[in-house]
Description:
By secondary structure, this protein is α/β, with parallel strands linked by helices. It folds into 2 domains: 14-113 and 214-286, D-Maltodextrin-Binding Protein, domain 2 (3-Layer(aba) Sandwich); 117-209, D-Maltodextrin-Binding Protein, domain 2 (3-Layer(aba) Sandwich), CATH 3.40.190. The chain is 41% helix and 19% strand. It contains 12 helices and 11 strands. The strands form 2 sheets. Strands 2-1-3-10-4-11 form a 6-stranded mixed sheet, sandwiched between helices. Helix 2 crosses helix 9.
Amino acid sequence: xxxxxxxxxxxxxxxxxxxxxxxxxxxxxxxxxxxxxxxxxxxxxxxxxxxxxxxxxxxxxxxxxxxxxxxxxxxxxxxxxxxxxxxxxxxxxxxxxxxxxxxxxxxxxxxxxxxxxxxxxxxxxxxxxxxxxxxxxxxxxxxxxxxxxxxxxxxxxxxxxxxxxxxxxxxxxxxxxxxxxxxxxxxxxxxxxxxxxxxxxxxxxxxxxxxxxxxxxxxxxxxxxxxxxxxxxxxxxxxxxxxxxxxxxxxxxxxxxxxxxxxxxxxxxxxxxxxxxxxxxxxxxxxxxxx
Length: 291
């Protein structure tokens, strides 16, 4: 029997925001940049978390920033491939791929801390170690969600643990499915687990966590002038210098942003994904057009 999964609809204002940005960017000389945010959570929730921070960065930098996301992570990846976003908050694997194929340039990343993949189960479940999940149904946000899907599935494969893999729409969908018993376990990360619903947090426990990796960067498309990239970068870094900025960061479960560079993601680009379904490979056509 087909198992239910949560469905999320994009609010009209979130669909309209990118259209507004496109019209302003193409129809005037205003400094308007879109900020695409990877949809780890439902669009309305992302908007409520990111929009106040965007408004502060807009005020500090003098650059009009417009929130943008996608219906799910694969659609967001298509947007990165096309270069739809002037700026993008993406996972480290996305950056390893789309810095090459689309030319995105890392500006800042969460600091301090490293990104760890989690496998979560119900708090009252019988599972004590990864091997106990053999033959069980596991849910993941998407095939190429880095820590929550690629890293966790890579660990299961390395240990030779066979599981039934299902993909849902977001991290919150993972936690919901495990909480409700639609899946035995699922992949996530600490930031989204801490910001999911209290009911889900109380119902779940972490069975396994990965070693740490570089955190999600905010990166700029090469069409964005370097001067504008620098202004946005400095405004993001300065958020931690004020009480208001720290409160906006805390809403996202961040302490601060720090400058980052392409070389910080070399360890992610070097990972071997052989035998792990769902990895992204830049097309030859995209490679040929990389600036």
